[in-house]
Amino acid sequence: MVATPLAIMILFSVASPSLIAKTSTGPRLEPGLERAVKWKWTVEANADSEWGLPIQDIPALHPTPSTAQPNQLALTPSTYEVKKGDVLVRIAKKFKVSAADLKTHNQLSGDLIHIGQILQIPPPQERRATKATPSKGTDDDTQAPPTDIVAQRVFLDRQGFSTGPISDSPTAEFERILQLYQSEKGEVPAVAEISSPSTDYALRAVDFRFIAPPKAARAHAPSAQAQPTPKPTPPPAPTYDELVSAKFLAYRSPWEFVAERFHCDESYLRKINPSLGSYPPVGTSFHVPNVTPFEIENISLTSEQPEPDPAQPVTASITGMCLLEIRKSGHIVAAMPLSKARPGLAGRGEWKILGTIPRPAMATLQEPRVVQVETSSPFYTNPNPTPVQARATLSAPQILPPGPNNPVGVLWINLAKGDSTDPLPFGLHGTSLPSEMNSFEGIGGFRVSNWDIIRAAKLLPNGTKLQWKP
Fold first, then answer.
1. What are the Cα distances from residue 217, in Å, to 59, 72, 220, 243, 355?
2. In CATH, what number is assigned to the domain containing residue 426?
3. What pTM, to 2 d.p., does this model score?
């Protein structure tokens, strides 16, 4: 039977609303990148040794003499390079810290150190700020007690099994990592070993080198009259023009800074700190998950990748496009949630980990990735469109500057296919939206949280094999 033109018209009129509804609902795009996701981007190494906002632009670093506190303006923790004859106890005594504090701050499992090792010496105000909160007798009755889920997440995170941004909700990432831990270790997380799954952190003046001043504060001086505590609401999403005009893509609020520092979902952080305002000042104490802090101030321009050790080979795998596993001598040492930044990315077979680019910037000439010439009509779409390369729009690159809110985060790891040593145009990197990296498309390649990409870089030597698993 041959369909009549009328029948075809009726069929099209019935089918088209659903087709239109299906195609009109596009993917969610990372704020500020709505147009940028269509362009080619390249990763740029940051040669600038300056890391953070310019000191002169940070009001918190210029307090009045009456409000300045001892050591408040120390910009970074001290470092010490281990020399011949050094032992941990003597180094601790030299800097007037306990050996236990020194080991904890440097994530050392024992007293063994080696010549040339760089130790981080935490300043006194930081050690006071991260002192563990007693499990009972808290002074703030408004703080929500940690749940079993939070305790499990803290335990897993400490073991190198990242569950994504910590909250009191059983997310898919949490369930996946929990199951992996139980299958690999043959045991449930030993939550009882954690004396306190939560701690307190007091904002330091130096933290504001990485936090953008509020827009209202730039336009208006603070009023001397006491004001009611404002409801803590996130700042508005950035525009593309704001992103490319910035010199450093800082955290948009102290909330975002503290949430990432303690591997925490920002909405959960607000939930357990209900009395704090929209832009907490220096000295504000936050209740936070008791994990090893992500110290953005200590991200070096030099690579932190370890040297290959044939006696303890390292391998990595990406499973189901949602999980990165790292193994040493066949034993898992770290696992973390992963997502792809843009559609069409996939992998199979064996790839390779190459070198890292710390503090990356991203550059574009606004050149479309691919323009496809379609031969189509209302009733036909060419199944094999011809790709045609489009010309660049700009004559000079436009730059998304480095910083924690760069779409590819604070570190980029180059990838190659098979035995090639040529970096691919997409890599493994951090993200500016750890709580929503599965929900938004953006630029880059395969992303994990900023705290996880630093953890991964410290475990993955250049040349590590990367396997793709279904």
1. 10, 21, 5, 19, 41
2. 2.40.440.10
3. 0.74
